[in-house]
UniProtKB/TrEMBL annotation:
<dbReference type="InterPro" id="IPR029787">
    <property type="entry name" value="Nucleotide_cyclase"/>
</dbReference>
<dbReference type="Pfam" id="PF00563">
    <property type="entry name" value="EAL"/>
</dbReference>
<dbReference type="InterPro" id="IPR035919">
    <property type="entry name" value="EAL_sf"/>
</dbReference>
<dbReference type="GO" id="GO:0003824">
    <property type="term" value="F:catalytic activity"/>
</dbReference>
<dbReference type="InterPro" id="IPR043128">
    <property type="entry name" value="Rev_trsase/Diguanyl_cyclase"/>
</dbReference>
<dbReference type="InterPro" id="IPR000160">
    <property type="entry name" value="GGDEF_dom"/>
</dbReference>
<dbReference type="InterPro" id="IPR000014">
    <property type="entry name" value="PAS"/>
</dbReference>
<protein>
    <submittedName>
        <fullName>EAL domain-containing protein</fullName>
    </submittedName>
</protein>
<dbReference type="InterPro" id="IPR035965">
    <property type="entry name" value="PAS-like_dom_sf"/>
</dbReference>
<dbReference type="Pfam" id="PF00990">
    <property type="entry name" value="GGDEF"/>
</dbReference>
<dbReference type="Pfam" id="PF12860">
    <property type="entry name" value="PAS_7"/>
</dbReference>
<dbReference type="InterPro" id="IPR052155">
    <property type="entry name" value="Biofilm_reg_signaling"/>
</dbReference>
<dbReference type="InterPro" id="IPR001633">
    <property type="entry name" value="EAL_dom"/>
</dbReference>
């Protein structure tokens, strides 16, 4: 019964027996220990699950449930292992059936040995399972999601695979050295590039040993190994890339590039640049040399000249500006292949003419060459070289059993008398060349100050002439042509006129040769042809229009098309157009020109040979190319009072009659001249007696009035 306190009558608690107290303390300690264990298990970074000998779950942590996405309400202590597997199948996390999964794990459970294996879940995750048996039966399993780890390992393997593939397939050789200067990577291309074996350069080889080995094998030309090692160390210290060319004993060139690595050590690449270097050298050569002849070009010549003049103590020198004479005739006769062969042959002869190794001959383009003669003792030495060149080029050039005859004109400027800078010397040499060509060609001329004024005047004329057509400063006059027997006007000749605001009316003899030399005659002649045909379209039917044609136009290539276009545009029949050519057109016997003339003649267009009798081989031209008309030059008509001249005129008229060629007399100014021509059977006349050159409107009124009188009788 309870014990009562004698003083206040309260009940005094009784002390528990000592055994009971000890049991209570043990329970508390066990509870605390279980709580600490549960906390430790729950806070593990891996999943954990413990099973007893009956394969029932004792405990699991949240990570286990999360890894397998298990329902915590179902997966509780006491649940059988197979049921957990079935639950994982039901929720779709397992990649196999429960029986298959259990069959995999059963051997590990039965053997009661520690083991580790992996399971891949249906969502692709990889779980590492560490199985550990318990002494009292059962087991504990640790589950770790190693998906990212496996992915990282796979990425690393792929990176290694790609690195190995890149090394194996690089076009460059590669070596990698670690921070201690020992080789740690070497690709196959390096071995192939230097034709060596892996045994020659084993991993662990030092940079110095590698260089010495390349020398020992006779691969490198002599190099300073100490210097190369020092350069590498300097490159590493400065953390900068360094490249250098290595010249191999077999003639190849290898570009070696050293690149420091951030973690220490460096990478060396080896690139066979033999072809690239050769290409670069060829490009440099092409940039400074003419591709056809191999001679220095304008750029290189100017560079050499500038260098020579930069020297304060520059010795005397002479500049020769050269231009081939009759070169275009070669192209017109035999075409571009002959051109090219001839230019190369000229280049060879010019080089043989030089006496000093420092002298330079260059091709500036086309048939234009330039020579720089060093250490010239003035005019005398320059003249000797000019004569050698003229004599060398004057000799026939024989190719494929054909002889080509050309000449050469030379202009010479001497330093320092004719200029102290390159531009002045070249300009003055060109000026002297112009004088040589204007005085008959195949000549040489030294520069004289007075020449400059002449050239400037000529160039000013060229500038004005080039601007004249866009400014519409050209016009056509028309001079009538009469049939002598009937007295009827049968047509008119178109004559070009230039009315310059600055120069006034410029005579055709002053500007036509310049237009021909500059090529301006081509567009100018096309304009004249169109305008003449357009004017003739309004004339009475049957009247002919005569238009002068330059040799340059015929050689331009598109002349036939421009004639056909002018006829089509104006509506003038081909039989009413007469093209007047001079003997110079036929002199070169150009295949292109003769073919064009025949094409036009086949269309019905008439061809007239102008200024007949003033050339050297007029009769020969008539034999090689039959024309429809010959025009006796006005110089013969003017001098017909002279017995000999009159005999020549009668002969030309008789020749025309015999050949069935119409003969027209130019420059008829008196009745006496007309009577003489009529008496000798000349068919047509043209000149001031017949009619002066008139504007298109005036000639139209004249022709219509004549036609009207003819009709009314």
């Amino acid at each position: 019964m309870p014990v009562v306190d004698v003083k206040d009558g309260s009940i005094v608690p009784q002390r528990a027996p000592e055994g009971v107290e000890r049991s209570r303390r043990m329970e508390d300690e066990l509870r605390e220990q279980n709580e600490r264990f549960s906390a430790a298990v729950e806070n593990m970074s891996h999943g954990l699950c413990m099973f007893d000998a009956d394969e029932r779950m004792i405990i699991c942590n949240g990570n286990y449930l999360n890894i397998f996405c298990l329902d915590a309400k179902l997966v509780r202590p006491g649940i059988r292992f197979i049921d957990i597997l079935r639950h994982s199948v039901d929720i779709g996390i397992a990649s196999q059936s429960a029986d298959e999964l259990y069959a995999i794990r059963k051997p590990y459970i039965d053997q009661a040995k520690p083991s580790t294996y992996e399971e891949t879940l249906s969502d692709g995750r990889i779980i590492n399972i560490s199985h550990r048996p318990l002494a009292v039966g059962g087991w504990v399993s640790i589950y770790e999601d190693i998906t990212e780890q496996r992915r990282a390992e796979q990425d690393l393997k792929e990176q290694h695979r790609r690195f190995d593939a890149a090394l194996a397939n690089m076009s460059q050789g590669l070596l990698m050295y670690d921070a201690d200067g020992r080789m740690i990577v070497r690709n196959r291309r390096f071995l192939e590039l230097y034709n060596v074996t892996a045994g020659d350069f084993p991993l662990g080889t030092t940079h110095r040993d590698a260089l010495e080995k390349l020398l020992e094998l006779g691969i490198y030309q002599k190099i300073d190994v100490d210097s190369e090692v020092a350069k590498t160390e300097a490159c590493l210290a400065a953390a900068k890339m360094h490249s250098a060319y290595r010249y191999l004993t077999d003639g190849r060139t290898v570009l070696v590039t050293r690149q420091p690595m951030s973690g220490g050590g460096w990478v060396v690449t080896f690139d066979d640049v033999t072809e690239r270097r050769r290409t670069e050298e060829r490009m440099i050569h092409l940039a400074h040399h003419d591709t056809l002849t191999g001679l220095p070009n304008r750029s290189m010549f100017r560079e050499r000249l500038d260098q020579a003049l930069e020297d304060a103590a520059a010795p005397p020198l002479a500049i020769f500006s050269l231009d081939l004479d009759r070169f275009k005739a070669i192209n017109d006769t035999w075409g571009h292949p002959a051109d090219d062969w001839l230019l190369k042959s000229v280049a060879e002869r010019l080089q043989r003419c030089l006496r000093n190794e420092t002298d330079v001959v260059a091709r500036f383009g086309g048939d234009e060459f330039v020579v720089m003669q060093f250490n010239s003792r003035g005019v005398a030495d320059a003249e000797k070289l000019a004569k050698r060149i003229a004599e060398a080029i004057a000799k026939p050039f024989r190719d494929r059993s054909r002889d080509m005859h050309i000449g050469i004109s030379l202009g010479i400027a001497v330093f320092p008398e004719d200029g102290r800078d390159a531009d002045t010397l070249l300009k003055n040499a060109d000026t002297a060349l112009y004088r040589a060509k204007s005085e008959g060609r195949n000549l040489y001329r030294f520069f004289e100050p007075a020449m400059d004024a002449i050239v400037q005047a000529r160039r000013a004329l060229e500038v004005d002439l080039e601007a004249a057509q866009p400014r519409q400063e050209f016009d056509l006059d028309f001079q009538p042509i009469m049939n002598i027997a009937s007295g009827e006007i049968i047509g008119a000749e178109a004559l070009m006129r230039w009315h310059s605001p600055a120069r006034g009316t410029v005579a055709p003899d002053a500007f036509i040769p310049v237009a021909e030399e500059t090529g301006l005659i081509v567009p100018l002649g096309e304009w004249a042809l169109r305008k003449a045909c357009a004017a003739a379209a309004s004339w009475p039917p049957g009247l002919r229009i005569a238009v002068n044609v330059s040799a340059v136009q015929l050689k331009s290539g598109g002349f036939a098309r421009s004639v056909i276009s002018a006829l089509a545009f104006s509506g003038v029949p081909a039989g009413q157009l007469e093209l007047e050519i001079t003997e110079t057109v036929l002199m070169d016997e150009s295949k292109t020109v003769l073919k064009t003339l025949r094409q036009l003649r086949d269309l019905g267009i008439r061809i007239a040979l102008d200024d007949f009798g003033t050339g050297y081989s007029s009769l020969g031209y008539l034999r090689r190319f039959p024309v429809d008309k010959i025009k006796i030059d006005r110089s013969f008509i003017r001098d017909m009072s002279n017995r000999d001249t009159a005999a020549i005129v009668r002969t030309i008229i008789g020749l025309g009659n015999e050949l069935g060629i119409v003969v027209t007399a130019e420059g008829v100014e008196t009745e006496a001249q007309l009577d003489m021509l009529r008496d000798n059977g000349c068919e047509e006349a043209q000149g001031y007696l017949i009619g002066i050159p008139s504007k298109a409107a005036d000639i139209q009124r004249l022709l219509k009035a004549r036609a009207l009188r003819s009709q009314t009788g």
